[in-house]
Amino acid sequence: MSQYRLNLFIPPEHAKRLDELAAKKGVSKSSIVAAALASWLSPDAGDQREAAIAKRLDRLSRQFERLERDQNIEIETLALFVRYFLTVSTPVPEAHQEAARAQGKARFEQFVEQLGRHLSRGRSLVRDVVEELQPDTARLDEATALAEAQERAS
User: Fold this and answer.
1) pTM above threshold 0.90
2) Residue 14 to residues 33, 85, 90, 98: CA-CA distances in angstroms?
3) DSSP H or E run through 136
4) CB 153 within 8 A of CB 58
5) Residue 16 — left, alpha, or beta (φ > 0 → left; ψ -120 to 50 → alpha)?
6) In the chain, what are the domain boundaries?
7) pLDDT given for residue 43 in this prediction
8) What kind and span of H or E run contains 15?
């Protein structure tokens, strides 16, 4: 096969990387440059890059949709809880409002401390509740592993 001789000027850092790659792979620098040029000139190269980008964007879109769905569930849950709480809680008489504020402040501080401990453990409240109701951890771990594998695949 006849080959065309070409003299190139490339930055020193590219030349160094080319030397290192050729030595590491055990191939000639000419073959690396020829492969890179073939990839650059290939009409399919752009399509392959576009397909890879589209696949990544699709995956990001699905992840975003799941986050949006989860956020909507959280908002609806909070709204339902607030409505329920406001419906069932009785008004505090004027004489007891100061004591109720103090008790509310203490309860809120306790809640924030408990939330901090819970978040520092890195566990899910949903998982804790499921374990309390049904302590079959083997099934729960299996379901968690399956869900994580499905998320990585998507």
Assistant:
1) no
2) 11, 66, 75, 73
3) none
4) no
5) alpha
6) 12-41, 43-90, 98-143
7) 77
8) helix 12-25
Q: What φ, ψ does residue 24 adopt, rounded to 5°?
A: -65, -45
Say how far apart CA 132 and CA 154 lie, in whole Å.
Answer: 31
How crowded is residue 131: how many other Cβ atoms within 10 Å of its Cβ? 14
Number of neighbours of residue 140 by Cβ within 10 angstroms = 14
Distance CA(47)–CA(154), nearest Å, equals 21
SS (H, E, C) 63-75: HHHHHHHHHHHHH
Q: Which of 25, 4, 5, 34 is nearest to 17 (CA)?
A: 25
Q: In degrees, to the nearest 5, what angle opens at C-alpha 85 toward C-alphas 82 and 88?
A: 150
Phi, psi of 119, deg, nearest 5: -65, -35
The token pair at 4 is 């065309």
> What would the pLDDT profile of 71-125 be if each residue is shown by its tens digit?
999 999 999 999 999 899 889 999 999 999 999 999 999 999 988 888 888 877 7
Nearest to 25 by CA among 1, 42, 33: 33
